Amino acid sequence: MTDHPTIQIIAIPGIPLIRAGDDLAAMLLDRLIAADLRLQDGDVLVVTSKIVSKAEGRAVWLHDVVPSPQATELATVCQKDPRLIEVILRESKRVLRTRPGLIIVEDRRGFVCANAGVDHSNVAGEDWVLCLPEDPDRSALMLRRQLEAVTGARIGVIIADSHGRAFRMGTVGVAVGVAGVAGLLDLRGRPDLFGYRLQVTQVGLADEIAAAASLLMGQADEARPAVLVRGMPYPLREGNAQELVRPRELDLFR
Amino acid sequence: MTDHPTIQIIAIPGIPLIRAGDDLAAMLLDRLIAADLRLQDGDVLVVTSKIVSKAEGRAVWLHDVVPSPQATELATVCQKDPRLIEVILRESKRVLRTRPGLIIVEDRRGFVCANAGVDHSNVAGEDWVLCLPEDPDRSALMLRRQLEAVTGARIGVIIADSHGRAFRMGTVGVAVGVAGVAGLLDLRGRPDLFGYRLQVTQVGLADEIAAAASLLMGQADEARPAVLVRGMPYPLREGNAQELVRPRELDLFR
């Protein structure tokens, strides 16, 4: 079976609960060695935004949050905790849609998503919420540099979150931070099998990798917050998650 | 490495160009045997919508198409061939957005996508276009039944296409037809590690599998139109792609 082009998605086992200040790179290296998994050139390491956020101390204790009048008003519409809404607003550029139980924003990083990516689960207790990493592309780059420095392998790193979609049900894994691998893969102008030039040809590569990794990560199972994607058929290049953010002028649905 | 939870995405090599009337199941079985790949319980076979459409004779010769006045008018706005627009309109319930070079519709199957999934590449010549399978869920079910009858394995089948996203750049693989595997995976109410009940908990499972398969399929490389996904950590259940269509009343962005 190894004769056929094959991608492997491998869960890195045994990653402990992450706390603020933890050295994520060191912990991942430790677990990779324990699992006899050696990083190879071309590997893409996918980690959940949650463990990166936790290591970076991005948890917020709701008792410390004083909601603004705007947050209080919005909380009534959304039927959510005003302190949670306050945190969401601090993480957002603008609010796009609100409904009971739902708030969709453009977050500070440009991502259109529910709750600005602020997470109310898998933080130790209901009075804590977890924000996205401050600058997920930078977090991915730092993690990559640390892992490459130790292993000597040339790798990609993707920080993954789960987002809903405007026109489809269900969340899917998406890339919120990227380093060492293309966010967008540009196939513009490459001829197809019949020599006809393709028109729609930018692939959301890092999002597809994040979705693939998400198949193993699950949603409620934080025992698998890191996944190795091995055997990518594309050569790695520098890239970032901002490539995946649709500019407002190309947005037809806002 | 086989000790860790691992998903394999395996390209089925050597699939020939597909023509109308071809027995896709027989061809896939032939290639699986030639590659010494035996279907196993829990495998998910992902095939491009293109090869299913071709086998089902869904190519349209543009010289046979007489554009309606509406199509001609829309073609001016979209700067596209009026005959192509006519085919797109026949495949659509309604037009949602138009711009020069772009037409986004709700297609007959409920998918919000560009061009109603009508493809102008990888069909033999510029005067041919290819529509989505008439009923991709049914196509997936038929393919699954044929493959299961011969192999005795209990498998899932996903028919994948590439769609753009409202708020993110780049296309990603999505499921347009599904059989034998969940479209949506429902984690509602499952407690997380701290016992806190998850709120956002429906995962677009078939879309994530399609995205994973798309990493190997590529866009311009029709030599890899079928991919085996092996090692899914979820038990297979009956499902379909209609689970992934967001109902209009839950759509905030149309």
What is the helix content of chain A?
25-40%
**Distance, first to last CA of chain A:** 46 Å
Oligomer: homodimer
Radius of gyration of chain A over alpha carbons? 19 Å
Number of helices of chain A: 6
Tally of separate domains of chain A: 2
Q: Would you tell me the overall average pLDDT of chain A?
A: 91
Q: Based on Cα principal axes, name the global outline of chain A.
A: globular
What's the CATH C level of the largest domain in chain A?
A: Alpha Beta
Could you describe the 3D structure shown?
- 2 copies of one chain form a homodimer.
- The first copy, chain A, is an alpha+beta fold.
- Chain A has 2 domains: 10-57 and 133-174 and 181-245, CofE-like (60s Ribosomal Protein L30, Chain: A, 2-Layer Sandwich); 60-129, CofE-like domain (CofE-like fold, Alpha-Beta Complex), CATH 3.90.1660.10.
- Chain A is 26% helix and 23% strand.
- The first copy, chain A, has helices at residues 24-34, 49-55, 69-78, 82-90, 136-151, 205-217; strands at 6-11, 44-48, 59-61, 92-99, 102-107, 112-114, 128-130, 156-163, 172-179, 185-186, 202-203, 226-230.
- Chain A has a 5-stranded mixed β-sheet with strand order 1-12-2-8-9. In chain A, strands 4-5-6 form a 3-stranded antiparallel β-sheet.
- In chain A, helix 1 packs across helix 5 (136-151) and helix 3 packs across helix 4.
- The first copy, chain A, is globular and about 60 Å long.
- Chains A and B meet through strand 1, strand 9, strand 11 and helix 6 of A and strand 1, strand 9, strand 11 and helix 6 of B.
